[in-house]
């Protein structure tokens, strides 16, 4: 047994070695409900170095969270780079320049605090003479920064803050194309990611800035709200969720099915009932596991991730499900995520060293910077708690609304999905003809194809998640509205009449490529259903069968659309 003097000498020797690189803790790096006793239940053992890996710390969790957030940002900015010019650019369907001008008029004709509060975006301060270059610049900068974080697994508050501002700048001028809940969810997730990081350091394990437990709990609170919002809106919404029949329709009628949707749709009835019950359990019961200690919190994390993976496999729901996995990762501490890191890797070895030093009680007094950081962490908790009040009241309300923001910066939001499930799938199909007389008996109508949404009966459903085709998604909504409610559909028709390359880049097939322009365009309304496995249609290689409902909009030509375009201040298609 070592004597007390020997122990003292070893401690002094160790302190002399560490004096040049003191370890400072903000006191919030450990879960207050976690024990640091070294036993089999609370720790895992690294056989190679003989040091226990403690529970209740989140250094590795931070690395995983930052990489996950960066991955979603990278996908989102890639989608923006590839599609923004066609949707909100100079020649887009809804130019953001026109939107900014309307906001400017609304707030009194000046670009000031009122304009920024109404539409927070750096585009206010950029040259509007080349909006396409502005949009591309924002998207490319976002791709570069998020790619860097994804590769190195570390970031600072500056990088994460810039990413948040850049995506805010796109979403707030994206209008209809960026009007869905996952945009606000990414902005909230990205905002929380800012506070995971040190201010300046790019070290994956910055010793002077341990992950704050407050920050970890803001992510946990996010996944709780996402799931409860989704579950409650279903129970209060479509009766098929209460009758356990919604999954009889969902796979066939969801916005953009994938190949697996076909097979999931034809599952036995009892399996669909099981799916619906499982959905209710995971969305309405499992979130409360978050507050039941470490093990139950991890059970919640595992179930939520498996649930999202099942949704990813069964449909193309943009990056929504990938994004929902991110806050679930905060349910795991370093001990539970260690398997993701090589045993001899630098991150894991550094963490083991940090935990050994902390277990020895070698904690110098906090520096001024760490005290400021502690105040910042507490302030974050207070801010999220304050902004959560209307969100919680909305969850408790019988008039619950989903995917709504109560503050212009979208820091804390309400969420939900599929409160109602459509029972039939309808599609709008654009058709064009070269015939001078569209009413003639010999007229031949040729169909356009979108990049992903159902069209040709023998085309296999696409598989694109987490990527996202925004126009295809909006066409799903247009199909159960009228063209008067979705005037942008007529805008597309006019652009197709001009063989406009900007819009055609969003289409999968142009029947008039390398030919003269179509003289007429019409929209046809069809009801689509999956073919039955083993049927004659399926044997012919068809995934879908369809039945014509009627015209969605009548045949139109450029001359006939002239007044329509002018009344809406749209440039005439022939001028593009």
From TrEMBL:
Residues 178-338 form the Lipase maturation factor 1/2 N-terminal domain. The chain crosses the membrane at residues 59-81, 107-126, 138-166, 297-313, 375-396. Residues 411-554 form the Lipase maturation factor 1/2 C-terminal domain. It is a multi-pass membrane protein. InterPro entries: LMF, LMF1/2_C, LMF1/2_N. Keywords: Endoplasmic reticulum, Membrane, Transmembrane, Transmembrane helix. The keyword Endoplasmic reticulum applies. Residues 1-35 are annotated as: Disordered. It is found in: Endoplasmic reticulum membrane. GO terms for biological process: protein maturation. GO terms for cellular component: endoplasmic reticulum membrane. Belongs to the lipase maturation factor family. Involved in the maturation of specific proteins in the endoplasmic reticulum. This is Lipase maturation factor. It comes from Cirrhinus molitorella. The lineage of its organism: Eukaryota, Metazoa, Chordata, Craniata, Vertebrata.
């Amino acid at each position: 047994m070592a004597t007390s003097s020997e122990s003292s000498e070893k401690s002094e020797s160790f302190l002399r070695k560490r004096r040049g690189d003191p370890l400072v803790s903000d006191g919030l790096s450990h879960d207050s409900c976690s024990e640091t006793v070294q036993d089999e239940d609370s720790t895992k053992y690294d056989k190679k170095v003989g040091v226990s890996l403690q529970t209740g710390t989140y250094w590795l969790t931070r690395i995983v969270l930052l990489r996950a957030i960066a991955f979603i940002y990278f996908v989102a900015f890639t989608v923006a780079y590839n599609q923004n010019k066609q949707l909100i650019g100079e020649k887009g369907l809804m130019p953001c320049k026109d939107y900014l001008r309307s906001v400017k008029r609304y707030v009194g004709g000046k670009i000031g605090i009122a304009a920024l509060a109404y539409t927070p975006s750096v585009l206010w301060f950029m040259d509007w003479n080349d909006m396409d270059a502005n949009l591309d610049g924002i998207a490319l900068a976002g791709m570069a920064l998020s790619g860097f974080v994804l590769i190195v697994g570390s970031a600072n508050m500056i990088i994460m803050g810039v990413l948040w501002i850049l995506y805010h700048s796109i979403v707030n001028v994206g209008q209809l194309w960026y009007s869905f809940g996952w945009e606000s969810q990414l902005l909230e997730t990205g905002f929380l990611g800012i506070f995971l990081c040190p201010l300046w350091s790019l070290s994956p394990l910055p010793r002077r800035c341990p992950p704050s437990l407050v920050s970890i709990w803001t992510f946990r609170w996010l996944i709780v709200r996402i799931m409860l919002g989704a579950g409650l809106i279903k129970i209060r919404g479509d009766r098929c969720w209460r009758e356990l029949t919604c999954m009889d329709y969902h796979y066939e009628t969801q916005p953009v099915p994938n190949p697996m949707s076909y097979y999931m749709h034809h599952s036995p009835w009892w399996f669909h009932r099981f799916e619906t019950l499982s959905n209710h359990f995971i969305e309405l019961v499992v979130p409360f596991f978050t507050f039941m200690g470490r093990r139950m919190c991890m059970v919640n994390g595992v179930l939520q991730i498996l649930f999202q993976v099942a949704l990813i496999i069964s449909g193309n729901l943009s990056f929504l499900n990938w994004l929902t996995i991110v806050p679930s990762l905060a349910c795991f501490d370093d001990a539970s995520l260690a398997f993701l890191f090589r045993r001899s890797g630098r991150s894991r070895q550094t963490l083991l060293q940090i935990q050994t030093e902390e277990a020895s009680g070698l904690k110098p007094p906090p520096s001024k910077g760490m005290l400021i950081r502690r105040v910042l962490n507490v302030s974050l908790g207070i801010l999220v708690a304050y902004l959560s009040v209307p969100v919680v009241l909305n969850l408790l309300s019988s008039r619950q609304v989903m995917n709504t923001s109560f503050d212009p910066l979208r820091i804390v939001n309400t969420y939900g999905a599929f409160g109602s499930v459509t029972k039939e799938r309808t599609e709008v199909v654009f058709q064009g003809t070269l015939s001078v007389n569209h009413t003639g008996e010999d007229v031949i109508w040729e169909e356009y194809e979108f990049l992903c949404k159902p069209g040709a009966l023998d085309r296999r459903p696409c598989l694109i998640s987490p990527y996202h085709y925004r126009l295809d998604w909006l066409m799903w909504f247009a199909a159960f509205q009228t063209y008067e409610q979705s005037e942008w559909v007529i805008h597309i028709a006019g652009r197709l009449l001009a063989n406009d390359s900007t819009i055609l880049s969003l289409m999968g097939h142009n029947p008039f490529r390398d030919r003269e322009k179509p003289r007429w365009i019409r929209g046809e309304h069809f009801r689509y259903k999956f073919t039955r496995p083993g049927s004659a249609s399926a044997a012919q290689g068809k995934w879908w069968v369809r039945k014509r409902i009627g015209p969605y909009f009548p045949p139109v030509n450029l001359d006939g659309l002239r007044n329509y375009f002018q009344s809406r201040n749209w440039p005439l298609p022939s001028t593009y």
